[in-house]
Design a protein that fits this description.
The radius of gyration is 16 Å and the shape is elongated. The chain is mostly helical. It has 5 helices and no strands. The chain has one domain. It has helices at residues 2-25, 35-56, 62-76, 79-92, 94-121.
């Protein structure tokens, strides 16, 4: 139990660092569209799907799933940043409320696709 907590802790720290790097490397778009947050969340969704499928097929251990899926994917993605990005867009102007809605829909649809692709590449289910 203690080892799994340590793995999640270390993975979460690595995921948070990866999120910061992705936020620094992804360019900003017009209308303050939070592309950096979208990219980080999509990468995390894909990683979680892939690791879950590989664990389901017993290719990766539970410890690896905790490190990669719970830790790194959890640290890389962030619901609070997702919501913050949407709120910032909505508060800018009426037109930005439309952009915010598009951002939320794109995040949910592409996030679902990213998980499905990860599961498919990991050999679980059909995407």
């Amino acid at each position: 139990m203690v080892n799994i907590v340590i793995l999640v802790f270390v993975g979460g720290a690595l995921g948070a660092v990866l999120r910061e790097f992705s936020m620094l490397m992804v360019p900003s778009l017009a209308d303050n569209f939070p592309l950096d947050i979208l990219v980080a969340n999509l990468l995390a969704a894909f990683l979680l799907g892939l690791v879950t499928a590989l664990h389901g097929r017993q290719i990766v251990s539970e410890a690896a799933e905790m490190l990669l899926g719970t830790g790194i994917a959890g640290g890389l993605s962030t619901f609070s940043s997702f919501v913050y990005g949407a709120v910032v867009l909505m508060s800018a102007s009426t037109a930005s409320a439309v952009v915010a809605s598009v951002y939320v829909v794109i995040s949910l649809v592409l996030g679902s696709i990213a998980v499905a692709v990860g599961l498919k590449l990991g050999g679980q289910g059909s995407a």
